[in-house]
Amino acid sequence: LVRLRARLSRSQNALGKGLLTLLSREHLDEDTWEEIEDTLLTADVGVAPTQELVERLRERVRVLGTRTTDELRTLLREELLTLVGADTDRTVHTEAAPDKPGIVMVVGVNGTGKTTTTGKLARVLVADGKSVVLGAADTFRAAAADQLQTWGERVGARTVRGPEGGDPASIAFDAVKEGIAEKADAVLIDTAGRLHTKTGLMDELGKVKRVVEKQAPVDEVLLVLDATTGQNGLVQARVFAEVVSITGIVLTKLDGTAKGGIVIAVQRELGVPVKLIGLGEGADDLAPFEPGAFVDALIG
Ligand code: GDP
Question: Bigger pLDDT: 221 or 95?
């Protein structure tokens, strides 16, 4: 966790440092407030949350009058925490039905880190003493099933797969059947994320979910989003949210960007919490999203 925190800080604290420096200026004139706004927008915080935050900061700084750096840091921390959502439930649920495995569908555009995230999540659950079955329902990308199976072998989870180009829903069905037969604690289903036709995607993801739900309720639909894609990622996220009901967001590749504000923007956009973050390609680089640690990393 300490290592993850360090990595998060390295990539993130440009934003908070910038904000603190600006807020510490003796005269907070309109130009400075504009610079503060630009700093937030550049960090991908998004237009509406930026305006809200700036308004709150203006009000609080005005009330404060003279201000020390410590006071500003505290104030900024509080306001960012409010924006990120300090008390939101971010548990990845895997216990919707008694005597059935918890079902987690992992969705998102190809290349965002879906398969990697599915593997890492399996590792977290197995380390927690849970038995896991993996469903390789991404039959679109040729190597996806192999990649998932390799993860499965590494972490000690069985992978159910079908023929290349096979029907994702039938593989998902088989994975859940296997999970029920083996009395597994969780079944994690990796899905394909081609975006070129929305109806195609809708049909496929909808079908996967319906077919799975014939056997067990789906606990979580996690949308994987690449933090480095910024506002483009948000557009994609919206398409997914329209076709399947998302219960949580996994923000990957936060190690590769200083634009941590995307956490705030995507939660606002989808009305769904960021539950997990990816901070590298390694097996241990998936962490629960902790608002406090995140905001601390932002402020530096
Ligand atoms: P998929 O097509 O969505 O299943 O994507 P993959 O799981 O194959 O991941 C695409 C690439 O992103 C791979 O090279 C992963 O190792 C890499 N990746 C995934 N998550 C992270 C992360 O949190 N940080 C970094 N730096 N790379 C990641």
Answer: 221
Query: Is this complex scored with an ipTM above 0.95?
Result: yes
From residue 4, alpha-carbon distances to 75, 80, 85, 95, 288 in Å are 25, 20, 20, 27, 10
Question: pLDDT category, 5, cuts 50, 70, 90?
Answer: low
Q: Ligand 1 centre and the CA of 231: distance in Å?
A: 19
- Does residue 244's CB lie within 6 angstroms of at least one atom of ligand 1? no
Q: Which residues are annotated as a binding site for GTP?
A: 108-115, 190-194, 252-255
What's the start-to-end Cα distance of the chain, in Å? 17
Asked if 101 and 133 touch (Cβ cutoff 8 Å), the reply is yes
Q: State the pTM of this model.
A: 0.93
By most ligand atoms within 8 Å of CB, the mutation choice from 281, 284, 286 for ligand 1 is: 281
Average pLDDT over residues 60-76: 89
| β 248-252/274-278 pair status | parallel
pLDDT at 165: 80
Rg (CA), the chain: 21
Q: Is the CB of 114 inside a 6 Å radius of any atom of ligand 1?
A: yes
